[in-house]
Amino acid sequence: MATPKILVVDDQPINVQLLKRKLEREGMTVVAAYSGQEALNLISADKPDLILLDVMMPDMDGLEVCQRLQAEPETKSIPIIFITARTTKEGKIEGLGVGAVDYITKPIDLDETLARVQTQLRFVQINRELVDLQRRLGDSRRAATIGAVTQGIAHNLNNLLGVVIGYVDLIKAYHDKPELVKKNSQHLEDAVNRIVGIIKQLTTLVVRNRPPLIRASLARMIDSGIRRYQIEYKIDQPVSVQHGAGEVLIETNVELLEEVIAKLVMNAWESYGEGAPPDQRSVSIRTEVVEKPQEGRFALIHIEDRGRGIDPEIRDHAFEPFTSTKHTVGVGMGLTIARHSMRNLGGEVTLSDRQGGGAICTIRHPLERRNRQPA
User: Fold this and answer.
1) CATH architecture for the domain at 209-375
2) Where does the record place the modification 4-aspartylphosphate (predicted)?
3) What long-range pairs does 19-27 form, CB within 8 A, spacing at least 24?
């Protein structure tokens, strides 16, 4: 840690000089302020690592200074040790209640003060190391995700290009047989469309800005998402819906939410396996509204199936790119895209086992906007 910078705030110059001399002998840089406003001005210009703050000062006392610092994100994390003549339990609790990390009672014991300052500086250093560690872990996760996506892209596109080349060769070999040419051309077109689909999904992952939001009916968006699923994937089987949440309006991006619903309903349909007849592939949706302490109210959209359940081999990696139990190339991005899209809307997508068999995929969408920043 670089030389720690301590701000001592006290309207009594003798107290400031005693503390300054003691701390400087221990290799610390000490800046002095003799009023609350002067302290705020100094902190605004150059933030210290720790503040020793007298409680009883004219004009602006230490409690108000502390409250102002706690109200600003830039200064909220600076540890404050109160210097107080109050020895009552209530006085100490009041100081700790406004955000101080510790207190020192007058008359000041310099050795005790030094020990308390050094303890808090160690906490500051630990917090900085944790922040740096979290940043490096985030970089590592991003690098790992990029590696997984890149490897998945290469594997899937190479396989699909192999399929394309194979059908092109077949078309050349059977150019004089129109029926075979037509059949292989259709397979070729399907493979090309899968390549286009991968590129489209990757473009969705790259977009990080929050999409434009409007207020819309949750029930209507669910119905539209089901229609999109039926049209896009050419499936006529109905999806049962229970609107437990009632008529709820949410602030969302309609296009994005409908696409997520369509993708997750398709995942539920595919959970039964290729051999299952359509009339035995039950997919249902139910909604509810929940309230989470400190977080707010959310609409939950539960998409349920009675299929094979969550494969243990992919349970811990279901939301990673190109994770799938299907052996067809060009798949495995549905859950990844869905979670990414919902996080950009301030929500989440989770996967859990359904009692009695199958799985439940839950979309959580906020009903109240408390943070407008991108997820």
Assistant:
1) 2-Layer Sandwich (3.30)
2) 54
3) 19/52, 19/108, 19/110, 19/113, 22/110, 22/113, 22/114, 23/114, 23/117, 26/114, 26/118, 27/3
